[in-house]
Amino acid sequence: MVKNIFKTAFRVFWREKGYSLMNIFGLTVGIAASMLLLLYVESEKSVNQFHRDIDNIFQVMEHQTYPNSVRTFDDNPGPLVTVFSDEMPEVEYMAAFTRSQEILLSIDDKGYKETGMWASEDFFEIFDVDFIEGQKENSLTDPSMVYISRSVKERIFGSETALTKTINFDGWGDYQVAGVFEDVPSATTIDFDFILPYQVWREVFTWVESWDNSGVKGLAKLSPGTDVDAFNQKIAGYINEKIPGRDHNVTIFLQPLKDRYLYNNFENGFISGGRITYAKLLTAVAYFILLIAIINFVNLATARSTKRAKEVGVKKIVGSTRGLLRAQFMTESLLLALISTALAGLIIMSVITPLNMLVGKSMSFSVSSIDQMSKLLIIGLGVGLLAGIYPALILSSFKPLSVVKGSFKSSGWSNGIRKGLVVFQFTISTLLIISTLVVRNQMDYIKSKNLGYNKEHLVTIPVEGALRDQVVQAQFKSTVLSNSNFKNVSFSGGTPLSFFSSTDAGFSWEGKVGELSNKFRIINTDVDFFDTYGIEIVKGRGFDPELATDTLNYIINEQAAEAMNVEDPILLPVSLWGSPGRIIGVVKDFHYSSLHEKIGPMVMPYRPNYPTDLTIKMTGQNVVESIAYLEKVMADINPSYPFEYSFVDVEYEQLYQNEATIGTLANYFSAIAIFISLLGLFGLSSFSADQRSKEIGIRKVLGARVSDITFQISKGFLVLVGVGFVLAAPLGYGFMNNWLQTFEYRTQIGVTVFILSAFISMFITLLAVSYHALKAAYTNPIQSLRSE
After folding, report:
1. 20 to 30 A Cα–Cα from 620, which one of 46, 194, 443, 779?
2. DSSP for 434-486?
3. What is the spatial distance between Cα 605 and Cα 485, in angstroms, rounded to a whole number?
């Protein structure tokens, strides 16, 4: 019996090759697309999960409360690391670490640019990496020792052992290698290739030892069984207790490291989503694509029910039971699904590499992975079962006498279900179209937004080596500006897209009420900074190198002037971290960081002595030639340093890399969902034209035009798609309006989005239906009426 079921199934596939190929193709694309999306979501959820004790590892965060907002940061005061674990028995280990930065490592006159950071002695007790040379026990206690990754070791020392070898770190001196650790997995929020002892960094930057300053990050490992919520309540006012007599505005808390990547957005002291929103969105898209593929299968199976009706009737008359018939149709469904699953696996393996390049991931898919093969098989079997249940129930329920007599007709209920599924299918497709259009509009808005500075033709270069010397800086400016391809050169401590300093109580002014007012961002500038970036001075003046007193003065932005709440800030006495001076100018607000963040107060002192960034304004002519010239000048100044540069407009776009990636994925997978829907409509229109062949023949005999017949066949599908659009429009507006709220500066969802999405939906419907409609309309009516 089982053999007969399989034999019959393959005969049906062969007899109806077009139908079978259409179903297999639709299911294959649907399964492959959904599996790829789920692999991406899984890679997002795997970040930081490689730690064996991840459930007990937390990052120390802090809320800073201001009159109009609560801001959340992952920086902490330096003294926290030295006393927190001693005073809190729940803390098993506590480590401080700095931001990662790129440094030139030198050995035997060879230089290597590597990225690393400084960390305190408990770091490797918390951060889970294995050592291949040396030991993690008692690590980071000797200020003369460094710990490097396997990749750095292989680049510098090859196959030789690295222990006790000496490496020079530019600006920091010589360090002996005390350990080599395995490369940190790419799925991490804390990435580094070397670790230097934290005490070295702390001795250089003494300001970090103040409870008033937050400049390092904290990682804590709690004892197993600790109630984290209760512990967070206990430590909330910990820092404020360390600073008696000042305004209290800091609340610290622990965030699970496993959540740090996905739940990375905070609003007024509460988690407001983050990458988890995109993970949920793409998961929903994956399941929607599967649903669309299943709907196609069900619709095609029920639409062709009249062709299988006589087969069912004859089998019932000769004694076949409903159970056997159901088994027959379920077997056909499962076989199609399993064939599709196998083909989907091949597609996934062929596109996983280009997909990784597209989204910047290192996902893998292999037949040797039992976990991945199991998931793929489960998806395939699930699709087969879901797709086969309804056809099996419907087709096995036909009454044999009605079928044999020729009085069988598809029930209105069955037709209604089919129409409902088409509506649902195009509701999803239209929702994806609306979402894709809104994301594209927001990305276009980001690219065209007036930022308050000119980001075009700006090149930034890190200030390092000989370029730290002011005499060399002056020579560099003179040399570069002698070339007509360049307009301005500026040395600054930070740029609109990269700065690391901010303060609240550290900035004060005459008439300030209370210690705290707002968070003021700091960029150290020179006289050319504002001209280089094209930032407009709306009040007062810029810095004058001829005035020695300007080294004590400050320029602020409009938001800072508003936050200070003074009638006229020009020449107002102010103080930044105890350094007195006056405000001499106010610049027009410009965006720093991304458009997710509202423009806040900014203070820009004239401090050209400690630059970190070199910005060069090009004319935009002969760009390749200009970069080559800069490379030659830098090679003369810093021959040991590789020439590294970046364009500001490219850096700006990288701020939205996550949104750009999601937008790209949405474009591709929305197109896939629409294609599967189109495939289903193509099949349905074929059956519809076939079932109405006699009607069409009669209409042609009575004089109907081709356009009339085409419209008669197409209008039913257009109505269904129209209903889908009506349902999708309010859903799309609600979902995408919520997404846009994550941007402080955003586009509006205009009526054009809905008009365009409606047009696209109608167009693809006509595209899918018109072939069979036109074919039926041009068919000789004698062929369809011959049997009459």
Report:
1. 443
2. HHHHHHHHHHHHHHH---SS--TTEEEEE--GGGGSHHHHHHHHHHHHTSTTE
3. 29
Measured distance CA(63)–CA(251) in Å, rounded: 5
* CA separation for the pair 442, 293 (Å, rounded): 30
Give the three-class secondary structure for 111: strand
> Diameter of the chain by CA atoms?
107
Q: Which residues, in sequence order, are bridge partners of residue 106? A: 111, 168
Residue 111's nearest CA partner among 653, 639, 699, 480 is: 639
* Tokens found for residue 16: 């109806």
> Distance between CA 139 and CA 153 in Å, rounded?
18
CA distance 207 to 620: 42
Smallest CA-to-CA distance from 507 within 498, 519, 496, 499 is with: 519
Contacts (Cβ under 8 Å, ≥6 apart) of 114:
102, 103, 105, 148, 152, 193, 194
Q: Are strands 76-77 and 270-271 parallel, antiparallel or unpaired?
A: unpaired
Nearest to 557 by CA among 599, 593, 606: 599
Give 119-151 as a DSSP string. E-TTHHHHS---EEEE-STTTT-STTEEEEEHH
CA proximity to 664, closest of 176, 397, 141, 278 = 278
And the tokens for 640?
Answer: 């040991």
Tokens found for residue 308 = 């299988």
Asked if residue 434 lies in contact with residue 757, where contact means CB atoms within 8 angstroms, the answer is yes
pLDDT per residue as tens digits for the range 177-217: 999 999 999 999 999 999 999 999 999 888 888 888 888 99
In one letter, which amino acid is 571? L
Structure token pair of residue 254: 């622990």
Looking at residue 459, what is its pLDDT? 96
**Do the Cβ atoms of 779 and 630 come closer than 8 Å?**
no
Are 195 and 116 contacting, i.e. CB atoms less than 8 angstroms apart? yes
Question: Are 42 and 53 spatial neighbours (Cβ–Cβ below 8 Å)?
Answer: no
CA distances from residue 83 to 91, 92, 678 in whole angstroms, order as listed: 11, 12, 64
Residue 522, pLDDT score: 93
- E runs forming strands in 172-228: 173-181, 194-197, 214-222
Residues of the chain with confidence (pLDDT) below 50: 406-408
| DSSP sequence for 551-613 | GG-EEEEHHHHHHHT-S--TT-EEEETTEEEEEEEEEPP---S-TTS----EEEEB-TTS--E
Let me know the angle formed at the C-alpha of 781 by 780 and 785, rounded to the nearest 5 degrees: 135
- What's the token pair of residue 290? 């599967």
**Sign (positive or negative) of CA dihedral 120, 125, 126, 132:** positive
What distance, in Å, lies between the first and last C-alpha atoms of the chain?
Answer: 40
* C-alpha gyration radius of the chain: 34
Stated pTM of the model: 0.84
How many whole angstroms separate alpha carbon 539 and alpha carbon 78?
A: 38
Q: Kind and range of the H or E element at 771? A: helix 751-778
Q: Please, are residues 64 and 70 in contact by the beta-carbon 8 Å criterion?
A: yes
CA neighbours closer than 13 Å in the CB half-sphere of residue 690: 12
Q: Two tokens at 605?
A: 């002192």
Cα–Cα distance between 399 and 250 in angstroms, integer?
Answer: 76
Please give the Cα distance from 567 to 555 (Å, whole number): 16
> How does pLDDT run across 92-121, given as a tens digit for each residue?
999 999 999 999 999 988 889 999 999 999
Cα-based torsion angle of the residue sequence 780, 782, 787, 788 in order, rounded to the nearest 10 degrees: 120
